[in-house]
Each structure stands twice: as C-alpha cells, then as structure tokens.
Amino acid sequence: MSKTWAVFKRELGGYFVTPVAYVFIVIFLFVTGVFTFQLGSFFERGQADLRPFFDFHPWLYLFLIPAISMRLWAEERKQGTIELLMTLPVPMASAVAGKFLAAWAFAGVALALTFPIWITVNVLGSPDNGVIVASYIGSLLMAGGFLAVGSFVSATTKNQVIAFVVSVVICFGFLIAGFSPVMGFFSGWAPQAVLDAISGFSFLTHFDAISRGVIDVRDLIFFGSLIVVFLFANAVVIEQKKA
Amino acid sequence: MIEIRNLVKRFGPFTAVAGVSFKVGRGEVLGFLGPNGAGKSTTMKMITGFLTPTEGTAIVCGHDVTKEPLAVKEKIGYLPEGAPAYPDMTPEGFLNFICDVRGITGPNRRARIDEIAAKVHIEGVMRQSIETLSKGFKRRVGLAQAILHDPDVLIMDEPTDGLDPNQKHEVRALIQGMSSKKGIILSTHILEEVDAVCTRAIIINRGSIIADGTPEQLRARSRYYNAVGVTVRAGAEQKAGIRDELGRLAGVDEVEDAGSNSGGRDGVVSLMVIPKRGKSIVEEVGRHARAKGWSVDELRVDSGRLDEVFRTITSGGGGGGGGR
User: Fold this and answer.
1) Contact A91/A237 with Cβ under 8 angstroms?
2) pLDDT digits (tens, 9 = 90+) for B130-144
3) Per the CB < 8 Å rule, is B87 touching A79?
4) d(Cα B140, Cα B168) in Å, to the nearest integer?
5) Where is B301: in which H helix or E strand?
6) B37-76 residues touching A, CB cutoff 8 A
7) Helix ranges restricted to H, B120-238
8) CA A199/CA A194 separation, integer angstroms
C-alpha cells in the first residue's frame, strides 16, 4: 500500500512540475465553458440543471483523457525509467494502480474545478443537487474508464503519439457502442445476444443512466470492472514486454 | 551473496545469454567484461529481476529472483545502463521517491539523503531538474539512487561510461570504499577500470563466460606477461644485431620492435622481448646486456596487457548482436 502511495505521489507530482497540468486544466475549463454556454444553450433553456454541462463530458473526455493517460507508461519506456521502476521493490499491481490513481486524481481535480458552474446554477435557480452530485460521480467514473483504457494502450508502446491516437479510437468505440454506426455494422449477421452485449459496453448509455440521478449498481459495476480488466491487461502487457 | 545458476535468455531465435554461472561473495568486486552485445546487460537485467530468465536463476542473499523477486529487489542497488532517472524531477525529489519506495522514513531519511548526496557530490544541484544536469551529474544521481539504502549487493551497468577522468576516479574511489561490506558486480568495457577496482573479472562473449579470474591471472594469459622492454643506446645500424642476439636467448620466444612506443628517438634502440609462455626472462636479458656492455637506458618488465587478452579471446567471431 505504501508502495502504491509512493508511485501515486511521484506520478501526480509529475503532472504539476511541468506545464502539462496547468495547460490541461485551463483548456478543460475553457472548453467545458464553451460547450455548456454556446452549444448547450445553458441560459436559453431556462432550466436550473446542469444537463448541457454534463452532456458534453463524454465527447470532451474522448480527446482530453487520452492526453492525460498517454504518458503513463509510454514515457517510462521512452526514458528507460521503466527499468528503474521495475527493479525497485514495487509490486506490479502497486505500480499500475499508483499510476492509474494519480491520473484519475488529476482528472478529478480538473473536474472539481468546474464547481463555479454548480454555484452559478444554484444562484440562478433551485436545481436538483442530488442529480448534479450523481452526474459528477458518473462523470468521474467515466473518466476512470477512459483512463484505464488509455493506460493500457500507453503500456503497449513507447510512442506517446501512438498511445494518444489509439486510445482515442478505442475510447470512441466504447462511446458509440450501442449506437447506429456500430450496431448497423453488426446487426445484419450477429446474433441478438452479441448485439446486446455490445450495446451494453456503451459508455454513453451508462453515463446517461447515472447522470439522470439514478446511481444503479449495474452502472457502477460496469465502470468498476472495466477499470479492473484494463488495468489487469496493462499489468500483463508490462510483465510480458518490459524492455 | 550472489549465485548465478546457468542463466539463459533467448529473444526469439537469438540467444543473448547461453548458460552463465558464477558466484560473488562479500568483499568481492566482479568486473563483467565483454564486447558490446555479449550479454552483459542482459545478465544483469536478469539478476535484478527486470527480465525473466528463459532458464536458470539467480540467488541473491538467499532469495531466488524467479520466486521472490521483491525480496531480491530489496537487497539490490541497481544502476541500469545510462543511469535512467525521471528528467522532470529534481535529484532531491527523485531520491525522496526512492526513499518512499525503499521504506526509508522518519528522521533518518533527511540525513541519509544528505549523506549520499555528499558522497557522490551532487549537493549543489539537488534542486535543479535532472534534465538540465550534465551527463556526469546524471550518472551520479543514478549512483546515489543505487546506494541510497546501503544495499548488500550493488549491480552497476557501466557506472563510469561518459564521465571525465576526474569523475571516473571519484566513482572508482567510491566503489572501492564500499567494496569491503558488499558484493559488487559492475560491467565495463574500460579495461583499466578492472585493474583499478575489481578483485575479479569475468569475460563474456556471445552469451558465455570465456575467462574468469583475478585481473592478475587474466593478464598472465597475455603474451606480453613478463615481457621485457629494453632501451639501449645504439645507432639504428646496430638494431638488427641486438635483436638477433636477444632472440637467441633461451627463454625468449620473439623480439618485437618497440620503437614506436618510445617515440622513435634517435640514438636509441627500443625492443620488446617476449618470453616463452610463463617464463621470467628479465634476469637473463639483463645479464646478457651487461656481458655485451650495452648501455641500457631502460629495462622494464611488462605485467601483461588486459586489452590484448581481451582482444585475443573475444575475437573468435565477428562481434556481437543486438545491444540488449
């Protein structure tokens, strides 16, 4: 546990010693603002809720989360520090979990910094704060899902650009699973059970369920198991291909 | 302290290490020599638990690296090739991270970091990011990381590579200072380093050990071992005669022209008298010179040349494969 904490601290610190963290946070806040107020017609709708804010999160994360996760392992490989990390007395699980949790905590900080919009909506009207809390939780879980995928992809390469692009593509697949382009591709020939399974993997569906204010155990299990599966795959990839 | 049992590593069809076995005890400094691609780094990576051996294992302080990798990693201080470190961090932050991982906590930590920083002379750059440091400083930060927890076993892959002569000297002095309490393995292709710090040397080529002994024993394999360098005041026209006479002595195998080594001065003849294997011929040569009344400027016994031994026994094939 202390080893996980050590890796976590180093990794999270790594975001803040370079401009990466600040650039990311500023852009994240700016773009959420643009989406919410311009595209989402926050004011024009005349409703005291944060739907226009949260509705864009999946699409925002599609590009911003791989930007956080791409360096996790690819950078270690590039710098050769993976040899250092893997010869320190750190269990593989601690290394993988520490790095993932650091990236997740960082995404959480960025998300938490959107609090002014929560205050705004509370000043302007009386929204259902329960729904908003649920949406924040859903958004954070979805970020974790994206990050786990990104961390896994990052472990397979030493090139951060490749890690970024491949992560975006895979995350896009997860986002739109269950929607017409994907389902149209499978519906002609795949059995119904497969179609249901595929649509069950949609981030959008699960996020949407949570952001309506209903935290269903199934949605929690979905994101939780997705994270565990991808982190496990991450550990396997590192174990198999260290150098 | 370290026992290597028949280590084998194959990368697909390529065999990087083909059955290496040796032991290193406390107080020993083992120099690991070999051409590039001979399997030095790969062997070290297997001992430190970075690569999984295809066959065989390494026992470090009683722990088997294939069964208890974490216990082995606790015992070892390892300086990987090129001394990788996180470029964004400062040496201070980096060493603190190592302390976190190594479980060095409490009031000892500050003192320990300061002590090590002073030992490797990086006190002045502790708050500068590692990427801005010179190669010498980076190497020393890597070294600090390896010795921070005062490990029983120290493994260093080319610890002095890229350092200037003063820095090399410092690092060697540091290694020697620690050597009595630890088992140390270091790889190098600088042969003078073996003489400077190692109590024993292993030469490896194409994944197999081809020589194992003290630097003295290895040098004894050189044809120059016990050879005698003679410089005589004489004109160039007398050279052939002197050469022939020396060549007829009983213990002498061959006489080489050593003129280029002494700068080819005028009025002197420099020769290198090579003995038949293992014979000591300095006395014989000296007696002969006195008998002949040569005016001898210099008479010097060669202690053997490691680079020559190295070249002779590793040039059996056309060099190594990949640099892993």
Assistant:
1) no
2) 999 998 899 999 999
3) yes
4) 11
5) strand B296-303
6) 45, 48-51, 70, 73-74, 76
7) 135-147, 165-178, 191-197, 215-219
8) 9
Asked whether the beta carbons of residue B100 and residue A18 sit closer than 8 angstroms, the reply is no
In this complex, do A80 and B78 lie within 8 Å of one another by their Cβ atoms?
no
Neighbours of B190 (CB within 10 A): 15
Distance from CA of A109 to the nearest CA of B (A): 21
Pairing of strands B225-233, B296-303: antiparallel
Instruction: Band the pLDDT of B259: cuts 50, 70, 90.
Output: low
- Does the structure show a pLDDT above 50 at B262? no
Distance in angstroms (rounded) separating the CA atoms of residues B35 and B43: 14
From residue B226, alpha-carbon distances to B118, B213, B282 in Å are 43, 18, 8
Question: Pairing state of beta strands B183-187 and B153-157?
Answer: parallel
User: What helix, strand, coil percent values describe chain B, rounded to 5?
Assistant: 40, 30, 35
Distance CA A88, CA A90 (A): 6
The H or E element that residue B228 is part of is strand B225-233
Q: Is the CB of residue A9 less than 8 Å away from at least one CB of chain B?
A: yes
All residues of chain A having their beta carbon less than 8 Å from the beta carbon of residue B89 are 10, 13-14, 17
CB nearest to A17's CB, from B49, B89, B98? B89
- Output the CA–CA distances (angstroms, integers) from residue A105 to A7, A9, A143, B48, in the order listed: 13, 10, 10, 32
Indicate yes or no: CB of A80 within 8 angstroms of CB of B73: no
The predicted pLDDT at position B239 comes to: 81
pLDDT of A180 reads 72
pLDDT band at B321 (very low <50, low <70, confident <90, very high): very low
Starting from the edge strand earliest in sequence, which strands make up the sheet with B14-24, in order? B14-24, B2-11, B55-60, B63-64
Residues sharing a CB contact under 8 Å with residue A236, sequence separation 6 or more, in sequence order: none
| Res. A93 pLDDT band, cuts 50 70 90 | very high
DSSP notation for A118-173: HHHHHHHS---HHHHHHHHHHHHHHHHHHHHHHHHHHHT-S-HHHHHHHHHHHHHH
Q: How far is B49 from chain A (nearest CA, A)?
A: 6
Residues B45-84 as b/e (b if ≥16 CB within 10 A, e otherwise) read bbbbbbbebeebbbbbbebebeeebebbbbbbbbbbbbbb
| A86 vs B50, B74, B100: nearest CB | B50
Which residue from B48, B70, B98 is facing A91, i.e. has the nearest CB?
Answer: B70
For B184, which DSSP code?
E
